[in-house]
Amino acid sequence: MAGFDKVVGSYAEAMAGLEDGMTVIAGGFGLCGIPENLIAEIKRKGTRDLTIVSNNCGVDGFGLGILLEDRQIKKMVSSYVGENALFEQQLLAGELEVELTPQGTLAEKMRAGGAGIPAFYTATGYGTPVGEGKEVREFNGRPYILEESIRGDFAIVKAWKGDRYGNLVYRHTAQNFNPMAATAGKITVVEIEQLVEPGELEPSQIHTPGIYVDRVIVGSFEKRIEQRTVRSAN
């Protein structure tokens, strides 16, 4: 079964083939479940003019935010961008194109792309700037706008456990955009915390089947907390 082994030995190998101008779909929510080392490899490669599809753009100095430092991102397709001052600066200066997308719509764009569905209708965004210029149809007396699905040249994903065949399990909140992103890349690269042998994962517990995954790499992670809120001692 050696031909099914998807584990690679370096981050350079994991991101081989990424070129300027490509579209990258990134899993994660805030800083939870982000493929932080794959993002760092994109920065190291210096790949430019990228379109990044992700719920948000990390924070200053971490996550996808580090790709803004050398202006590697040309366009962001995202839902929330409020934690990154550099993002705001580049947007207001006209240096960064941004396509704001409602969160559920963004998730469905990825899921539909992975399922081979080119477009879908949703009521979310109708009558707002999000819906401007989009086709409208009425179903059961309610207007809906047509949204196109998303496919990426690459999808980069973070998982908790995975086997050599690419079967994945996500942990807790990291099961956010990662499962949808994993299906929507022409090349899907996953970094995992734990590599297990084939057969160790209970089939009913697998969140992403290996058929969607092209490359797997085992990493170590900082797991930075975006905003720490604690109760006072007294």
UniProtKB/TrEMBL annotation:
InterPro entries: 3-oxoacid_CoA-transf_A, CoA_trans_fam_I, CoA_transf_BS, NagB/RpiA_transferase-like. It comes from the Bacteria. One of its GO terms (molecular function) is CoA-transferase activity. Coiled coil: none annotated. Belongs to the 3-oxoacid CoA-transferase subunit A family. This is CoA transferase subunit A. Keywords: Transferase.
